[in-house]
Each structure stands twice: as C-alpha cells, then as structure tokens.
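so i finally got all the pieces together for this one. its two components total, 659 residues if u count the protein bits. some of the lines might not be protein, just check the labels. i wanna see the whole assembly predicted at once instead of chain by chain like last time, that was a mess tbh
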Amino acid sequence: MPFADILQPSVIVPWILAMAFGHFVGATPGLTATMGVALIVPLTFYMGDPVAGLAMIIGVSFTAIFAGDIPATYLRIPGTPASAAATLDGHQLARQGKAGLALYLDLFCSCLGGLIGVALLIVLAPQLAKFALKFSNFEYFWLAVFGLSMSAVVSVGATWKGLLAAALGVLLATVGIDVVSGVPRFTFNNVELTSGLSFIPAMIGLFGLSEVLRSLARPGEIKQTEIEHQEKTRSIQTLLVIWRHKWLVLRSSLLGTFIGALPGAGADIAAWAAYGIAQRTSKQAGQFGKGSIEGVIAPTSANNAAVGGAWIPALVFGIPGDSVTAIVLGALIMYNIKPGPLLFEQNAGQVQAIFWIALLTQLFLIPSGYLMIKAFAWIMRVPRSLIMTGVVLFSVVGAFGLKNSLFDVWVMIAFGLLGFFLESQKVPLPPLILGLILGPMLEEHLRTGLIKTSGSFLPFLTRPICAVLVTLLALVFAAPIISRWRQWRASSKSA
Amino acid sequence: MSARLPWFGCFLVFAGLCGLWFGASIRESGVSGGHDIGPRAFPFGLSILLLAGGIIDLATAIFPGGKHGASNAGALSTSQTNAAKSSHARVLIFLGALLVYVFALPWLGFNLATFLFSMGMLFLLRARWLAAMGFTLSILLLIHLLFVLLFKIQLPRSQLGIPF
C-alpha cells in the first residue's frame, strides 16, 4: 500500500482522535488499554476503510500504555496495569521535584521502545510467516495448545486456575455450528447463537463492563494529591540522560518485545521483568524504589515494546500475544483479513499499512504525549462517576451497533458479569480470552488431522515441528516444578 | 482458620454439569467413517475437566490444610464490613438498573431509556444533579452525532410510539 494512502484525512483524522482517546483512557486510573481498544473497535467498523480502523486501534493501544505512566508518576496510581512498575521510581522522582524529568523519560522511552518493538515486528513477522507455511493441521493443533498453556502459566495467579479458565473459554467457543460436521451445539434453537457467541461484545463486557462493576464494588474514590514545586525540565536534558542509558533502553525493549510475543503475557509482565532485570544488573541497585532513573527507563521502554511484540504471533499465526491483540484479531476477521502466514501474500497492502501506522504512531506519540502531560491536571478533575457512566453507555451502544442486535448487548452483560466474578476469585482472564479465540482452531485442527490420519494420533507426535512444540510444552510445565524441586533441595541441604 | 468460600469451585461444577447436560443433546454426525471424534467430544471432555476442577477446588476449600485452604482474610472491622456491604448493594442496584434498562430499550426507545438509566446511575454514584443532567444530555448528543448521523446506525425506537 502506498505510504501516501495512509496520510489521507480519512485515515489521519480518526487516527489522531483515537490517539487522544487512548491518552485519556490510559491516564485515567481504572480504565485500561484493553478497555479502550474494546470500546473503539465497534466505531472502526463504520470507517469504511479498514486502514482507518487499524490506525485507530493501533493508535489507542500504544498511547494508552504510555499515558498510564502519567498518573503513576503524579499520583502513585498506575493508569494501566502496564505502568505499575513505573510507579515505584517515577513517583519518587516527582516527590523530589523531578516529575518533568520522569514524565519526559516515560515519553521518549515509550517512543523508543515502541519503535524497537515495531522494527522487530517488521523484520521478524514476514520471515516467521515463510516458516509457518510449512505448518499443517498437526502443527497448528500443538501451537494452539502451546498458546493456551503459556497463557495459563505466565498469567498472574495460580496456573491451575488459568488452565481451567482456558478450558472454560474453549467450551464457550463450541457454541454455534460445528465447523467439521455442521451440527449445532448449545444453540437452544436460537438463531442468534448459530454463529456462536459474538466476540467483540464479549470483549467489551469482559474489559469494559466488568471494570465498571469492580469500580462500584470498591468503596471510596481516588483522591488526588498535588505534587508541587516541580523543576522545569528541558527535552534535550532528557535525551542526554537516555543517551547515557542507551544500552538499558535497548535491552529492555528487546526483552519487552520477546515477552509481548508470548501468548497471554503482555505489557505489564514485560514492564516488571525489565524492571527486575535492570535492578539486578544495575551498579546502583540500592537506588531502585527511591527515584532511580533506570527504574523509570526500563519498564517504560519494555511496556511499549511489548505492544509491538504482541502483534508478531497475532499476524503470523493468528495467536494473540496479549488481550489487545486478541480483540484486534476479532476485528481483523470482521474486516475479512484472515491472520496467518498467507496474510503476508494475500493482504500484503494491509500488512504494510499496519507496519507504517505502527511506526508513525510512535513518532506521533511525542507531540501528543507532550500535550497529554500538560492536560493531565484537567483530566483528573473529571468525576469518576461520569467516566463510569460513559463507559457503560458506550459499551451498550458499541455492542448493539455491531449487528443492530440487543442479543449482543445481553452477551456483553453476561461476559461482564463473568469477568467480574472470575477476577474476584483471582482467576486470570487472558487464558479465557485465548480459549475463546484458539478453541475453534484447536478443535478444527485436531479433528481434521485425525480424519486425515484415519484416527491415528501418531503423526501429531512424530512430525519434526510437532515434536519441537511438544518438547517446548513439556518444558513450560516442567520448569516451575524443577525450580520448586531445586528450591526444596537447597532448603533441605541448608537445614 | 476458617475455610475459604468455594465460589469458583461451585461455578466450575455448575458449568461442568450444564455442559454435560446440554451436550447430551448434540447429535453425532457420522462424518468421515468414524475417524472424526465427533461434535460431542470437546464439549463433553471440557465439561468433565471443569467438573473435576470444581470438585477439587471445593474439596480443598472445605477441607483446608493445604495452601489452597487458606482463609480469605482476617476479620474485618465494623466500618470495613459496612463499607463492603454498601459496595455490594451498589453493584446489585446497578445490575438491576442495567437489566431493566436493556429490557426497556425496545419499549421506551433509546433516548428516553438511556436518559433515565444515566440519571439513575449518576444518582447512585452521588453525582450532583446539575452535572448529571449536563453529562447525560451531552452524551446523548454525542452518541446521536457519532452513531446515528456519522455511522448511520439505527438505535432502538420506542414500540410504544414515544417520540423521543
């Protein structure tokens, strides 16, 4: 797709508005990047041009992740979970009168981390796609199993709860007409259920409505504490600081991209991992938690890099790297863009557009982020009650507007209740979402593979790529057990 | 130490039993000469997995002793208990209002139903009435501009003939 096509007003205007929305969502504690994407996806269907829709989605996801660092610095309240790691040192710097330095570090490191993540996406994804052309039913089956297992293991909370959440997601995905045999399942003679549970309303419910319910269940309001007497910081000063820590930025961004590419892991895990590694390798480890500049640089580079990394498995295999790309996959399918290795041949123009948009978003992030930092004080004056009401109304209208169906609104409410209940029981949601997305892939490839092999499971184990995937799967489950066994051995030796 | 509340276990057992009960009505297809595991395999297998997981979770909750049997929290103070009760009441009232709102949409029409729901929700959240009125009218206008005029979506109209 020609670069000039992306710079049309019909793309640029919604793109910039979506970035503004992403900043607002990210900077407001309690609203997440995933919620922002879930709410904006229904709007993108009416753009007419899928490129404009993709620009809006990419714009929201990158800006929301950055904007979450702003309340993290000023209020010690992360705007999104991905900014939690940046709270530790960002807020301490603000208390020392260096909020400007912390926020400009957030901004430039987010931009650099995002650029590195997107650059890796552009370089790696097409190469992986060529390799993925060798995949058949057998390999895709194990890839789906690997994706589900990975999400259960890396998600916050007990692994067994993650696995059961994944199983629940796969079970919910069986609603509708069975792809292999054409038999209706769990449709209860309802026409609306023959095409299965609508994915986008389910996501709006899980991330929009459930967050409103959580806010209502939390007593009290967020109190704003002013941090006064801030030093003025110049951008050039910040850039010199970043140049002195350039290897930390690069290392954190690479780590963030890799973690972002793991199914179920996301920007929040990437940020914490980068923070932990930066602390362990720093010459001034004692400063972490007391206003360390490295403590701000590492997580903010990693979290935006992870956003780019999450697109790698999403585009190449149709396996989302995080909750945001899970929603994006649903949107791509509605645009008739089928993720997978053939995407790079059949929809080369749109893939190019995604790459350009992702790159340019990082550059647009600088001026928009700068304005957002200035506007933050105004946003914090908007009462939470108004924000929550707005989220509910847009959730209802968004869910209804997709197919002009009140049934989708009921699906949205049901998943909102489910998400609220599961999170109250400390059950992670990413495995559930992956189960909804990967369930059909898992079942279809298993059954088609068995039909091809006349019922024999042996090729699922003996094909070379399958054998590698099975080994990786075994390592994913064995690693925590081995680690615990080593800890037990070490403690019984010392005892 | 008291046993933790086994809500997740109960939910899994319920989901598993529902899956097995309703899955029994899925007819087998007889496609591919018996090499296909059939459309019932996944629903049944997953339901059994959920049922088993639920029973294990219930057992560890009812018979605490392992790490899963830990209690939820220490005793709450009176003010914390009252605050928690008030929050639960808020959630239930909101859910009730949301259900009534969605039921009422085809009868009252989108504008009236949304106006009533929004004002009710803001009243529940203790917003000032002037701010609530201003916000509700603004958001109705925004939705109308965005969804109806720009995206040409037909929002629900009143079956009772209410004009707005």
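The longest helix of chain B spans residues 78-108.
Chain B touches chain A through 65 residues (CB under 8 Å).
anyway lmk what u think
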